[in-house]
Write a structure and sequence with these properties.
Family: Belongs to the type-II 3-dehydroquinase family.
InterPro entries: DHquinase_II, DHquinase_II_CS, DHquinase_II_sf
Organism: Deinococcus maricopensis (strain DSM 21211 / LMG 22137 / NRRL B-23946 / LB-34)
Mean pLDDT: 97
Pathway: Metabolic intermediate biosynthesis; chorismate biosynthesis; chorismate from D-erythrose 4-phosphate and phosphoenolpyruvate: step 3/7
CATH architecture: 3-Layer(aba) Sandwich
Keywords: Amino-acid biosynthesis, Aromatic amino acid biosynthesis, Lyase
Number of helices: 5
Low-confidence stretches: none
Strand content: 15-25%
Order of helices and strands: EHHEHEHEEH
Bound molecules: 1,3,4-trihydroxy-5-OXO-cyclohexanecarboxylic acid
Helix content: 25-40%
Largest sheet: 5 strands, parallel
Distance between the termini: 10 Å
Radius of gyration: 14 Å
């Protein structure tokens, strides 16, 4: 089982800056992730929250809930949440950070990720396919 976590404002996909994030909704993205998981032979569970504390708790509990890795798009928390960074480094599962947009081609504040340094890697700018690559990585790594 792999956990896909989307953070703040990602519930607005489809109507939020479609020029940046595309026209697909969160539901579309989550359905795609489940389908990609099925192709890879792994069950994918998707969750989204606008609340930092909720994301922390999902990260804390993931290993004991039987997940073997986490695909994480922390949204803007990427750029400032030391609490999320500490939650990632405080548990043992591999985490791959994903961004739909190319954060390095955008505003300067998005060039900083306080979370990527404690993740296995970071995929940015490849749209929804970035989640697929992250799922592939975690499946191979933990298979
Ligand atoms: C994002 C990039 C972040 O900078 C932004 O705050 C988001 C989405 C992305 O997927 O491109 O909410 O993580």
């Amino acid at each position: 089982m792999i956990l896909v976590l989307n953070g703040p404002n990602l519930n607005l996909l489809g109507r939020r800056e479609p020029g940046v994030y595309g026209s697909g909704t969160l539901e579309d993205l989550e359905r795609q992730c489940e389908e990609w998981g099925a192709e890879l032979g792994v069950t994918v569970t998707c969750r989204q929250s606008n609340f930092e504390g909720q994301l922390l708790e999902w990260v804390h509990e993931a290993a004991e809930q039987g997940f073997r890795g986490i695909v994480l798009n922390p949204g803007a928390l990427t750029h400032y949440s030391y609490a999320l960074r500490d939650a990632i480094s405080g548990q043992d599962l591999p985490v791959v950070e994903v961004h739909l947009s190319n954060v390095d081609a955008r505003e300067a504040f998005r060039h900083v990720s306080v979370t990527a340094g404690v993740c296995r890697g970071k995929i940015s700018g490849l749209g929804a396919r970035g989640y697929r690559y992250a799922l592939e990585e975690l499946t191979e790594l933990t298979g």
